[in-house]
Fold each of these.
Amino acid sequence: MDATDRVPLLDAKLELTRRLVPEERAELVGVTLSVIETSPGPLAVAGVLRRNNAFAAALLEGVLVHSLQVGEQAGIQLLGPGDLLVQSTDTAPSWLHDVAFRAPAPVRVAILGDEFLGAARRAPRLIPALYECLADQMQRLSSQLVICQLPRVDQRVLAMLWLLAESWGHVTPGGVRLPLSLTHETLGSLIGARRPTVTLALRKLSEKGSVVRQESGWLLLEPPPEPEGTPKELAPELAGISLSRWAPGPELRDPSVRRQQLRDNLVA
């Protein structure tokens, strides 16, 4: 899949340009990025980046579903406008299956390659902006992890809708609108719940007036769950432990060797 269009860097509405000062913006007038549009279906991110000689891509329009599976349990992460797509490393666990991207509808992505690196030499603030965008994605993923641990499914559903609205929602006079038409099954994959349970939770939230289902999304009326009391201090027993003492040596790089040593230690 090759680039078929171009977009001015400053007109792409990328989060990468939010830190630029006027002098840098003046330097980047006329700089453009290659853009590709994908069809609905699987998206081989590594192949797209390799064919376009890019180190990353920025999602301009549309939504991507990033899925993975451990054993019989599958989960997903949603990526939307402003998020970055990077090539996965070779260090992913061998037991992590079906790591893939899928586009439910056509999406447009801007290619970050030599043109972007050339622009970054003239406007260095583009580089820390890359880290900020990735940090935002990691924060959203970490929040999703905590949401999955909420005791009630209706709490998880409401919190997840608010989490997505923080990135892609719009404030309206009637409430916060999330323009994502998520199915009950998709919501279940996001929060670690079965579709029938999500359906019951949404019915409960609708009857309370917490959320309203709209033709192309959701209207959020009740605020997300808030902590009660002071934040809890978790895992204090880990304080002061250096990670380096657990780092494997060269002889343990083979996963089968590592698993066998763990079994031997447990038996002992």
Amino acid sequence: MRVKLFRVVLGLSVLALVVLQITSPLGKGFVISAAVDIKPETLNLNMQGKWITAFVGLPEGYNITDIDPSTILLEGLFSPAWSNVEGNRLMVKFDAPSVIDYLWTLLYHMGGNRIRVELTIRGKLINGMDFSGSDTITMMNPIDA
């Protein structure tokens, strides 16, 4: 009797898991791998420029115009001040002084006058799917170099 009850409970549990898997929203937990190119590639932390620019591309099968620019964050901290679709890429511009203040802390904590750091951009498409991509830039403090 106990074995039969165990089999029934086990079968119902497996069935419940299968139903949950089938009915869960598509793409939940799935992150689209975006191509990210950040300019300048070498960032002088004493620069007086206004923008740090990133170009975001999506893999084949996704449309760049489906990105919701209001969801984009650089390093989870910085929203773009400006964005524009250029061909098959989205160009986003971040306020350089704000990003440079953040990067100064990285340079200080990592030590050295010239280091390579990976910066990540995350965001969402208008359908709610997440995307993420990274690029590595060189940061330098020319005063101490």
